[in-house]
Amino acid sequence: MNKKRITAVLLALIMCLSVLAGCSGKGSKQDTQPTDAPTQAATDAPAEPTAEPTAEPTSEPAPENKGLTGKTAAEIVAMMRSGFNIGNSLDATGNNYTNIYSQEQSWGNPVISFKLIDALAEKGFNVIRIPTTWFKYISKDGKYTIDTAFLDRVKQVVDLCYKHDVFVIINVHHEDWINVKTLDKDYEKIGVELKAVWEQIADYFADYDQHLIFEVMNEPRMKDTGNEWNPNTAGCNAVNYLNKVAYEAIMSSHKGYNDERCVMVPTYAASSSGTAMKNMEIPSINGDSSNVIVSIHSYTPYNFCLSDNSKTFDPAKDGRDIDNVFNDINKYFASKGLPVVMGETGSTNSQNNTEAREAWSYYFTSKAASYGVPCVIWDNGAKGSSGGECHRYIDRWTGEWVEDSIIQKFLDGANSVKWGSAVTK
Q: pLDDT digits over 211-236, tens only?
């Protein structure tokens, strides 16, 4: 009897251990922090991720559309305050593009999930910009047909944002067919593809209300030339032409909410320089530009925001460069009733200079708010404290804030002054 009892106990123990071993492999891979967290700049691709994503980020049904309608672009921008860029995700271009989720993770970040979007909305961001790169999913069939599977993935992320009634910006981002050396000469050829791409995106998302905003290009420029970041007349003219082509393509849809779709159009390279602003032409349909939002990026002062050359920020001295940016925004756009969104801004982690970055964040967004300009902070998920591209404010695996004090100053600044109080007419 004793031997039988011992045998029975041993068999039961073995069965329990087998069940436990089977259960241990069911955890979501994306909830585990990888050891090779991103450290690369926004244009560099880190090592390929080793884990496939789970279906968790896309399993929730799309939320019911709330039907925001009847607003001009100026009215929509007045409803916006602070935004967050989910950079180096849907704009990433590494890995095998046939696996959309692998591509999304190819620059070191996890797939965009409920956890991240929920954290952004709960923190107080009411604008989420989703940089999106399309070129690997555009066919060479002469019609520039976009892979439906990729459109579906973009839709899944937009739907996550819609759950919180935030504004969502989608764009065309790292497009190697737009940012070319010969942009100033080949803009008409580029325009054919840009028109086809935006016709398809506009039709696909036509039934999304005015919470969804289209940004026609990201930093369009003559890449690898002396004028890449320094606009000249020819470059500005090319961008003006492409803005018009894309805007007309969207407005010609006449489906769903597209007749009142807000459309963001950039200056040359989305530059905040006075030259780029002065040379910008606002597209219109029959003289009506009420759907247009000007898109500008500003990492000012550059040596503080995008390099390690300056680790301190003195508002009394360094704030002058920021003042100049918004003085020009007022001169060329705000004073004329043209709404502006600062689609990218931020300051890199340079030797953990947190206090200086807090000061910069508050100064920049408070100045922007006084001119009625919502700011969208750039986050690329890149760890580190040197190199000029360390813009990581939240742990995308856990949804925990890692630079909470900087983010709080960014948000506080936007609410510290009367909105648009500095605009002159």
A: 999 999 999 999 999 999 999 999 99
Distance CA 224, CA 231 (A): 13
Strand partners, 394: 401
What tokens were used for 139? 């066919």
Question: Choosing from 175, 193, 219, 389, which is the catalytic residue?
Answer: 219
Please tell me which residue in 193, 260, 344, 389 is annotated as part of the active site: 344
More confident residue, 44 or 364: 364
- CA 410-414-417 angle, to 5 degrees, is 135
Active site residue 219: yes
What percent of the chain is modeled with pLDDT above 90? 83
Superfamily of domain 72-414: Glycosidases (3.20.20.80)
For the chain, which residues make up each domain, given as ranges? 72-414
* In the block, residue with structure tokens 């579906």: 152
Tokens of 35: 């050891």
Q: Greater confidence, 1 or 71?
A: 71
Can 400 be counted among the known catalytic residues? no
